[in-house]
Amino acid sequence: MASSSFQTTHPQPFTLAEAQQLDVGVIVAEITRLQNSLAHLATSQAELASFLAEDDDPDLRAAYDENAGVIASQEERVAMLRHVLEGKVGRESLGHYGIAPADETTTTTAAASARAMVVDDTAADDDDAAAAGLHL
Questions:
Q1: How far apart are CA 15 and CA 19, in angstroms?
Q2: Helices 24-54, 58-89: inter-axial angle, 10-degree rounding
């Protein structure tokens, strides 16, 4: 079981103890879902940054700042879930589930934002999403 040394700085929809009770498949699915959401958010951020470079519109600035908070929260949630998964299956087994260890994860928000230049209108703030799918 993962140690309880993981500390969050953003409000999360579950605690470390609750995450430790989840099945491995649920953890892997949630990490994958969050990584997809983060990729869409990075694309949106890059587009917003491009618009803001031309015109510092207050509404666009607010959207950019809100996205930054959502990104930070989701990245922290991925880190917590990866921490729990590593505790359950071992670091050497993460690849079996398609999950890279934290120190091997090369897609940072900044790098993803720099590469992403097109907005995907299907990307919504998954913290407010309802109904379809698993939302931890």
A1: 6
A2: 160
Are 99 and 85 a contacting pair, CB within 8 Å?
yes
3-class DSSP state for residue 93? helix
Burial (CB count <10 Å: 0-12, 13-18, 19+), residue 68: middle
Nearest to residue 102, comparing CAs of 22, 43, 35, 33? 35
SS3 118: coil
Short-list 77, 112, 82, CA closest to 97: 82
Cβ–Cβ contacts within 10 Å for residue 40, how many?
18
Sorting pLDDT into bands at 50, 70 and 90, what band is 15?
very high
Contact 76, 8 (CB under 8 A): yes
As a whole number of angstroms, the distance between CA 36 and CA 111 comes to 15
pLDDT tens digits, 72-99: 999 999 999 999 999 999 999 999 999 9
